């Protein structure tokens, strides 16, 4: 098992903020829009350095999406920013009609996604957004795993032509990927090569998968761990290559079991040769208030849950 260590923890939304600051300095076409959540989206540095390239839309998310779509007509690259719940569920009609249908170059960058929003509770813990955005034709869906990868993904999103949904979170998590990495949209990242079971993880669950891999190694199980940071387009080649080698798999995500990463992988595999698959995800439930750690434990999204799922997948293979 390849060893991953970290010296600090940071929130992925701060990685977005630094990425936006870099874009402010390097790409004059990038514009930021926000729905009254500048501090939460970590846009302060971008705004300070580029006040003329920021639009405060207020608590008016639908209008923000329309404004962002309009800005693309003049060649701008707008990042429309808010909480994930508001940037997907609240404005789905506007995203579908004004952005996806006309293939506008809008980047929808959203924070506070998933259960790890914590104490804010079920009303704000969006767990359906990946499914919603993945269903839109032409929409690219990205869910990076740590501070460094979120920064790199933000920069890559600006370089990509077409609508992008970029998802990140509030809690501090280990920073374990390279600081100077090159983010490739649609290209999975091999975390650890293995032979007994494939673990495909996304977002905050990548670190949990790494921890699970270490536990499995101690028990004589060699897990292949792959970071699927791009839910759409899916790296089909990497997934098929891995499961053909290991013969079984686990998908792990901070999202509903329906429609997210696990569903995307299952849709791929069922067209060829299905393999035993176990799903680490929220099982048809809304969230609730609690600390991120408590919620990850209760809803079965921890390293020990991934370990149990991996063993079950292996048993079904055998």
What string, H for helix and E for strand, traces the elements in order? EHEHEHEHHEHEHEEEEHEEHEHEHH
Low-confidence stretches: none
Strand order of the largest sheet: 3-2-4-5-7-6-12
Please indicate the percent range of residues in DSSP E strands (runs of 2 or more).
15-25%
Radius of gyration based on Cα positions = 19 Å
Count of extended strands: 14
Helix content: 25-40%
General form: globular
Helix/sheet category: alpha/beta
Describe the structure.
Helix 1 runs parallel beside helix 7 and helix 8 (205-218) crosses helix 12 (303-317). The chain has 12 helices and 14 strands. The chain is of the alpha/beta class and 318 residues long. The chain is globular and about 60 Å long. The protein has helices at residues 12-26, 44-49, 61-73, 84-88, 92-100, 129-134, 147-159, 205-218, 236-246, 261-270, 292-298, 303-317, and strands at 9-11, 30-34, 54-56, 77-83, 107-111, 140-142, 164-167, 172-174, 189-192, 197-201, 223-227, 230-232, 249-256, 277-282. Strands 3-2-4-5-7-6-12 form a 7-stranded mixed sheet, sandwiched between helices. A 5-stranded mixed sheet has the order 9-11-10-13-14, with helices on both faces.
